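Hi,

I'm pasting everything inline rather than attaching a file, because the server keeps stripping attachments. The sequence lines come first, and each chain or strand is labelled.
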Amino acid sequence: MNDSDVTAVVDDDEVSERRIRRCSTVWRWALGVGIVLGWELLTRLKIVDPYYFSNPTTIVNTAYVAATQGTLYVDIGYTSAATIVGFLIGITSGALLGLSTWWSHVYGRVSEPYLVTFNAIPKLALAPILIIIFGIGFQSKVALAVALTIVPAALAAYGGVKSVDRDLETLLFSLGASRIQVFAKVVVPWAMPWIVSSLRVNIGLALAGAIVGEFIASRYGIGRMILYAGQIMDINLVWVGVVVLSILALVMYAAVMTAERYLLKGMLHGSQLSTQ
Amino acid sequence: MTGTAAAIGAGKLDVQRVSKIFKRDGRTVRALDPVSLTISEGRLISLIGPSGCGKSTLFNIIAGLLRPTTGDVLADGKSIVARPGYVAYMLQKGLLLPWRTIIENIILAAEVRGVPKRESIARAQPLIQRYGLGGFEQHYPHELSGGMRQRTSLLRTMLYDRDVVLLDEPFGALDAQTRLLMQSWLLQIWSDFRKTILFVTHDIDEAIYLSDEIYVFTARPGRIKAHVQVALPRPRDQEAVTSTSFMDQKRQLLGLLNDEARIAERQDSLL
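And the predicted assembly:
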């Protein structure tokens, strides 16, 4: 038999991997389109009550009107700004708080139960107080976003600090490094993956904080728009708010993922998290 | 410290009746009974002994990371107790920072001292080439073999530029073949840099092949049981390992160590 007659079957990981990826991409889009079409169809046929559940075309039309004649853009900007500012303040101060526990074991141990307790408090319940303190303006929305994000960030950084490889600290000390050098060259990079892993959760929490702030008292924002639409029974406008918030959350989540990749550049090489 | 610190006499180390007692879980552990060593300049000296005999404790004390319960460590007549940074110390694990590239790891010591990055890279570059790490400067530690990682941390230790270098079982985790290569490599480094090297190992062959002198430690609590001069001429190559004088030396050391290993084993089984 000639060699060329033999059919060789080579298992190519790359090919099968590519096939799986292509297949799942197709199905992802198909499912999304299917949900929207099904929603439209079911409400048109009155199988589902369009008064409560609206439908995609009405939502788009309502959004168009809200954008051209109403204040949709201003509201999106307001909510986004409050979320982002609150998120940045919350994670920065939270991370610093958690990292600071490295400087003293006593201080770290004293603060741990308080961090855990404060984490357990439903911070949204503090909203009325924060609004009394910070007023009904922008600041109270930021304050709520900070209140929701600061403790998870601090706990994440604290967890990172607790897991720092003592031998790496010893190494730096043996080179004659000062405490501040050990902190900067070992503790911060070591805890970075912990801090970064809390960002995805925190961006969602920041958004929730901003919206609740707007619910309670505000002149702008998607949260206020939804509340107002509910009060005048404009359910289509409520749906616009929900859809806009979903898109906002997705965009912010994607932005955080990009930031993660940038922040962790080089930091996961063979280190703790990559093996998990 | 002034620039004259590297003058004649530097690299001499006097360990005077240093001991260490820990208290752990309510029990008192004598890690190290009073130990005295005089390390003269430019020598390569090994410490061997059963595991847990306090060799690493002694190193931590000499490195200034641990305070001895009694005794003193003098370098050129001055006490260096609890003063880290006087000697270069390579810890047992290679300990490279995983988020730093090889070159960034090598210049870590210089960076801690505040030497500008470009300057220390320029200084390290020829050594990186000479010691077989060329082309890997921008790689991360996990991308390198165990031997290369150890070479990186050894090079970092050498570039710390102290007169005395402590190496705590640097080749312990390597396979036999790599180990042999690393030993020759260490001899090359030693003759290049002309430092005083203190070397902890479990391996008798390694100790004889590398050192001028060998201190044999007892099982816990660690004490010096014997101080042996190695008679092999230098420069040495792998052939030396098969010579009769090597064998004699090995027989002598094996005899000294066997009793201690047995005691150490009994201690472990009692724990």
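The first strand of chain B starts at residue 13 and ends at 24.

If the labels don't parse on your end, tell me and I'll reformat.
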